[in-house]
Amino acid sequence: MVALASERGFLPSHATRSELELVHPGRRRIVYLNRKRLRVQTIAVIVPPWSEVDELRTISGVNVRGDFFHSSNLRAFPRRMHEGNREIPYGYSLVCADVSAFGRVLDRS
Prior knowledge:
Layout: H1 2-7, E1 11-15, E2 19-24, E3 29-34, H2 35-39, E4 43-47, H3 53-57, E5 62-70, E6 79-81, E7 87-96, H4 99-108
Antiparallel strand pairs: 1-2, 2-3, 3-4, 4-7, 5-7, 6-7
């Protein structure tokens, strides 16, 4: 996944056990690769909440979860109240059917 992201200009910039931050310096874009989902052979990418979700839904092989994904590891994304008493970063989680769908998401992110 990292090699494919690198081919498209995204470089790893920060890693946690749960997420890998990928930054595209030229386009000033950030997405996160959900590492927990990779362990169960699922490619999940978290994009910022300001992303054009309707456009991303049209990508072949991509399923957009209807609600926001929340994680304290999404350090570059905005925060909001979700559960609990503190704001937490959030974005949209996209599940990619295969590596080529992952590449198409990166091309549009």
